[in-house]
Prior knowledge:
Layout: E1 2-6, H1 11-22, E2 27-31, H2 42-47, E3 55-58, E4 61-64, H3 66-76, H4 87-103, H5 105-116, H6 124-145, H7 157-171, H8 181-190, H9 194-197
Parallel strand pairs: 1-2
Antiparallel strand pairs: 1-3, 3-4
Amino acid sequence: MIKLYDFKSSPNCQRVKVVLAEKNLSYETVPIDLRAQAQKTPDYLKLNPYGKVPVLTDDGTVLYESCIINEYLDEKYSKPPLMPADPAKRANARILIDYGLGHLDGPYQKLRMETMKDEKEQSKEVIAAAKAELRKLLQRLETELGDQSYLLGDFSLVDAALIPRFTRLEGFGVIPDDSLPRLGKYVERMKERPSVKAIL
């Protein structure tokens, strides 16, 4: 039986839940309250020494780090496949995940932290600059998308990895934007998938 140690609003947990749903895998959820620091308890740290969510257990296998969990799920439960068979395309998938999560993280976190402040303390300049930088960085994904329905053509681990970030960027008012028409339509298309609807 698969168990997912989960905090409902965590984007890291959400991307795993998308893959579990796409593969129609049943699993048990173990709620971990980050606000109560449940991820820092000795028992939890035995599962994940990083003290983060999610953790996935599957027949004695214990895994953490959401993108690694998703690759495991795709390799063990291969129907439907969510990574290309071609090694070069698989490598490109990993590059896009790294880009969408790693390279966008600086301005994303800057925007997130600024908007968490009391409205009177927020800097409009910091928010505008972060949004502008994010839109500039998102041009790479706009180009990658091209006329395809999904970032690799077919729905893949790339889409599962990035959709929690895209929905948050939408919440921050970064997208939709006239400079990113394909990405705007893509996010709307993604939100129609049952696996994504379940995390919204």
